[in-house]
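Sample intake sheet
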Amino acid sequence: SLFLESVRVTAKGLPLVTTDRHECLMHGPTQRFSCTIRQSTEFAKHQPSRERIEGAPVTTRWASIDGSEWLGTAGLGLWIRSNGILQRLTPTDQIASNHVVAINEWNQSSWFASFDSGLSRLRDGHFTQAPLGPRMLNDLIGTDAGLFVATSEGLYVSRDGETFRRDPRVTERFVNDLAYDSRRHVLYATSTNSLWELALDRPRAIARVTYQPGGSHSLQAVDVSPEGTLFLASEDRGVMRREGKRRFVAFDRLSGYPSSWAIDVLALGGKSALVGSLRHGIYPLEGPN
């Protein structure tokens, strides 16, 4: 199938790609996919689906430290799977929205970013609305330096989970994706045509910004490998990989890859990644390890 729904890493560190018809798992050093047909029975719709719950696509997931799994959907809110049981938590628990776009755990709480109704927090079994301000969110990520939230009104940060402020180092208004290099303590943030790098261990350092990296005017996502290799997904230059400090190499149709319209990228080991495209499914980007 060419209709991509998600790309993620399993608990064992293996890439799992889900389309509308199949689940494909990449195995070992051969880097080959083995695919199984997704169940479509009435019984399966009420079981812990990886990509759809009662017809609603799963937009984000988070593996909790207690062994349960949070699943955010587009249209049916937030769900949790624990001990093989799938349970809907909204709207009865009054989370902010039924369209959850990102989940993270930070500062002894679970955090839920929504597409249209701001940020929610779960602590001690109760949901509360976080005092963020912006309501249209795109991503969030917890770091040693605080909780960062990508919004339509800029990049926001909280050091304590109680108060939020806009990070003035990123001057772009619309921030669409985040990635964190924990080894170097660097936060990456993308806007439509710019990449921002924040040194979190030096809070007073000026952010490093690259406009139109690799010639792209429409960035979609950012990810970084465990070794620190940076990848960008874009609508016009496919996936780009940073080589050195400033040079970006584009892997698009001009360079022999299936698509120039990438919607997401998952960094693997070394310089390899999986690319999620708009119309050409999932394909690997291979590089020297």
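Comment: DSSP finds one helix and 28 strands in the chain. Helices lie at 42-45.
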